[in-house]
Amino acid sequence: MYIHWFPGHMTKAMRMMKQETAVVDSILYVLDARAPMSCVNEAFDEVIGNKSRMYVLNKADMVEPEIVQAWIAYFKKSAPCIAADSLSRTDAREVVEGLLALNAPLLDKYKAKGVNHTLRAMVLGVPNTGKSTLINSLIKGKKARTGNKPGVTRGKQWVSIDKYIDLLDSPGVLYPDFHDQSKAVKLALLGSIKDEILDIGELGLEAVRFLLSAYPDRFASRYGEEVNAQMPPLEAMRMVAAKRGYFSSDGDADFEKTGRAIVMDLRKGYFGKISLEKPI
Ligand SMILES: Nc1nc2c(ncn2[C@@H]2O[C@H](COP(=O)(O)OP(=O)(O)OP(=O)(O)O)[C@@H](O)[C@H]2O)c(=O)[nH]1
Ligand SMILES: [Mg+2]
After folding, report:
1. Predicted model pTM
2. Average pLDDT in the 252-273 region?
3. Best of 56, 90, 133, 142 for a ligand 1 pocket test (most atoms within 8 Å of beta carbon)
């Protein structure tokens, strides 16, 4: 399976983001805490230019706390970084405070001139990392459209989160070219790449491979104790298919249906708090 997905709306989004950078003070760079390195998109560097940035490790509620802490230490070497669970809105204040601290010198400069500057920040990241949900967690009502699939946000949308802070929601953008297919697989597992362009049976096999090596006990407790870490992934997948009764018309396992079920279980967090990658 070779993964490549860079539809026209992403080219358009990049163009819009480059234009809007001129009017923003800062960037909120949203990463999925389950695989934050794979969410770092070099194509964004051109958009960000010399603007200040803060990393937000979103969906931190889905990851082992000690790994979240290790990632924070890792990203802090280059820019401020905080963890967030945007669904529960518990970290909203920390996000706002982080943004204000990042821009303190600029705000002080305006204050000295007697100007109440409205801080503008662009929220960017690869698809489905929770950018719109993060923005919604900072305002009372629900303003930005969200959904558990890539490509929900289209076009640009400015949202005022208080009198003096405006955030720009942006559409998730992937790499124009996935040189590193292992990154692409992780993003596919996170739901950042449209399922329709993926071979979901193959992706399911990748999920099995990962789970058997990183969390074999959790895999076994979900699908049956007879599945073990030593088992070849394809065989493990056959056992899951047999347990669930997923067969194709020729009597063999229905790999597409089984793959989809395993990928969905992974995305929904049915294996507990997990990380697809760890800081080196
Ligand atoms: N568990 C958990 N789920 C989250 C969190 N933030 C967002 N989600 C879920 O992730 C999915 C994607 O959220 P969106 O806010 O639409 O993501 P987005 O980055 O705006 O996506 P695009 O606009 O498609 O690029 C939704 O199902 C959200 O409910 C979080 O902190 N924790
Ligand atoms: Mg969105």
Report:
1. 0.95
2. 97
3. 133
Residue type at 217 in one-letter notation = D
User: How remote is the CA of residue 23 from the centroid of ligand 2, in Å?
Assistant: 20
CA distance 13 to 48: 14
Nearest to 168 by CA among 34, 22, 57: 22
- For the chain, the domain total comes to 2
118-151 confidence digits (pLDDT tens): 999 999 999 999 999 999 999 876 677 888 898 8
CA–CA gap between residue 7 and residue 37 (Å, rounded): 22
Q: How far is the CA of 123 from the centre of ligand 2 (A)?
A: 9
Testing ligand 1's pocket by substitution, the residue of 44, 57, 86 carrying the most ligand atoms inside 8 A of its CB is 86
Tell me whether residue 71 is in a domain: yes
Query: 162 lies in which domain range?
Result: 8-169
Cα angle for residues 83, 124, 138 (degrees, 5° grid): 55
